Q: What sequence folds into this?
C-alpha cells in the first residue's frame, strides 16, 4: 500500500521466482483486516495506531519511525522491538540495500516470522476493555457506599 500519491505507478503485480512471494502494489485499502491477513511482513512508520494494529494481529514488522517531533514514533516502536516482534530502522539509515538485507534475513530464518508474530501478540491484552470497565464499575460502586 502506497497511500494517495502515485508511488505505485509503474509497479505491477509479480511473483518472485526465487521465493514464490506475490507482490501486489495498491494505492489504498478499505479493509485493512484483509491486508493484514494476507501479509507476511509489514514495512511501516511507527505511529501509535499502526503499532497497536501490528501487535493486535501479530504481524511481524520492520518499523521506520518518522523523524519528526520529539521521537515519539521511535518510542512507539520500542516495545515491539524489545519483544523481538519488530525491527526498527532509523529513517536516515533506510536504503534499498538495507531493506533487502533485513527482509532477506527474516525470510531466510526458519520460524523467525512466526516467532515475531507470537511475540507481538503477547504484548496485547485482549481483555483490556473489560478490565477497564470493571475498574470503573468498582470505583462507581465504591463511591455509592
A:
Amino acid at each position: 500500500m502506497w497511500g494517495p500519491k502515485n508511488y505505485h505507478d509503474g509497479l505491477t503485480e509479480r511473483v518472485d521466482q526465487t521465493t514464490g512471494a506475490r507482490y501486489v502494489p495498491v494505492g489504498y485499502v478499505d479493509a485493512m483486516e484483509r491486508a493484514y491477513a494476507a501479509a507476511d511482513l509489514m514495512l511501516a512508520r511507527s505511529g501509535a495506531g499502526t503499532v497497536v494494529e501490528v501487535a493486535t494481529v501479530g504481524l511481524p514488522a520492520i518499523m521506520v519511525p518518522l523523524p519528526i517531533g520529539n521521537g515519539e514514533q521511535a518510542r512507539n516502536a520500542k516495545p515491539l522491538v524489545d519483544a523481538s516482534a519488530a525491527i526498527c530502522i532509523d529513517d536516515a539509515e533506510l536504503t534499498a540495500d538495507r531493506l533487502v538485507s533485513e527482509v532477506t534475513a527474516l525470510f531466510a530464518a526458519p520460524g523467525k516470522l512466526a516467532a515475531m508474530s507470537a511475540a507481538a501478540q503477547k504484548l496485547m491484552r485482549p481483555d483490556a476493555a473489560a478490565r477497564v470497565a470493571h475498574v470503573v464499575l468498582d470505583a462507581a460502586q465504591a463511591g455509592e457506599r
